[in-house]
Amino acid sequence: MFRRRPYRDLERRLGYRFRNESLLETALTHPSYRHESPSAEGDNQRLEFLGDAALALLSAAWLYAQHPGLSEGELTRLRANMTRAHVLAEIGREIGVGSFLRLGKGEAKTGGQQRAKVLEDTVEAIIGAAFIDGGFRVVERIFRRCLLPAMQKMQPRWDAGENPKGRLLEYCQKHGLAVPVYEVVEARGPMHQREFSVEVRVNGRIAGRGEGRSKKLAEQAAAAAAVRLLANPQT
């Protein structure tokens, strides 16, 4: 008799069908469930450890190839941002991990399905489970198909906390370029909903453009765009 795979929809979103479905089930098992269910064979904590290491390597390899002009320190900062907790939690929401989680009753009642820490840990655990089930090539395929597009879409957010104006100034000083000059080129909308567009020039040339609800935010966005452009002139 045909048995429907309970995680088929999640596997479809990941682009990978697990050979050992129990690995995926373990990745979706929160410690609170195991504590309340003696029949549960384990939880996702060990898989989370493995998935965290695999994600660090995959993101490092991708950044290394994409940013040939960046230093070790700059790459390290980008990798840390790329795999931040809120980024992985958002990916968990996008692929609908919450609806497949096995949670204890208390955790479920308090909204564990959408809790950022739970989603982050589960995404890492799924990567760890895929590594055991199919090897590194499978994990890389899931990363490129499912995680990387979401990470790139959220790039302004994982760039945000790293002081992009400071990074641009540091880059210019390191490479003998002039101090960046910021200029508001457009301000639109009513006073209480103002939108600013800012250009940043380096050596007299436009290096980046950004928009924001304040001049400061627009300058930060322009600086982040300039850093990406200067580090990757061919992209």
Shape descriptor reads: elongated
Let me know the average pLDDT. Answer: 86
Number of domains: 2
What CATH first level of the largest domain would be assigned? Answer: Mainly Alpha
- Number of helices, counting only DSSP H or I runs of 4 residues or more: 12
SSE string: HHHHHHHHHHHEEEH
Major beta sheet, specifics? 3 strands, antiparallel
Which secondary-structure class do the elements indicate? mainly alpha
User: Low-confidence parts, pLDDT < 50 over ≥5 residues?
Assistant: none
CATH 2nd-level architecture of the largest domain: Orthogonal Bundle
Spatial order of the strands forming the largest sheet: 1-2-3
The multimeric state of the shown protein is single chain
- CATH homologous superfamily descriptor of the largest domain: Ribonuclease III domain
**Amino- and carboxy-terminal Cα gap:** 53 Å
Strand content: 5-15%
